Amino acid sequence: MFTDLKLKNVEDNRNWSDKDVERYKQKKGKEYEIQIEKYLLNENNTLDADIISSELFPQVDADVFISHSHSDEDKAIKLALSLEKIGLETFVDSCVWGYADDLLRKIDNKFSLPRGAKYYDYELRNKTTTNVHMILNSALHEMIDRSELFIFLESENSVKIDDYIKKSEYLSSPWIFSELAFAGRVQRKPRRQIELMLKSFKESFESVSSEKRDVEFAYNIPKLTNTIEFSSFQNWIRAKPANRTSDGYIDALEHLDRLYKKLKIHPDLLKAPRIKA
Asked: 17, 59, 118, 171: most buried, per Cβ within 10 A?
């Protein structure tokens, strides 16, 4: 990861309709089919964590990783659509939540439900939940590490205010807390360089999230390096590239560099050319 960014006061992007969002969800949703049989080792009751991780997270290097509250999913998708329109590869974190829930449900039905019982075995259910969430969390961290820019959508849905005790802000989502904490500690890497003859194009994905919690937790909010108002970020997206080339992906990466300059990232970190000689 090269750098991180917090978007403040995220608003609904009216350039994209509800139909656009739904088409995005349907397109991304077709990429997964949970089949437990593919994850078993030697047809035994042992599940292969590496296979599960690779099925949920294809080995792609997204340009932008978008972290957000489940309630802001549509806003995140519209932001992803805007970024993809200018040629950047995006990853929206909620794209795997629903599939992780489907996976957990199928695993529990197979391994945590005693024959003839109506309810899951408590200890077995704890074991399956812990393992699936650990696999998901590890894979999310890997996706963040492989991305160039990490974006967190700050909103009243993702950041709560404690009005009764000390008027402090906190996160209620363990997923967002984990992503922000990792993004704040992950080793920084140089910006992405591409070789024209070897560059390949990738497809991103998205799904409907079904994360539900009956109990709410409070996490301190890890600090990110950069912060910008959403309106200013939108102006950057809408700005036309200064120089157009015959390669749209190069234009997109150079447009991303203009965002980094807007964030006042040190010029020395932006010296390396995008095109690798």
From this structure: 171
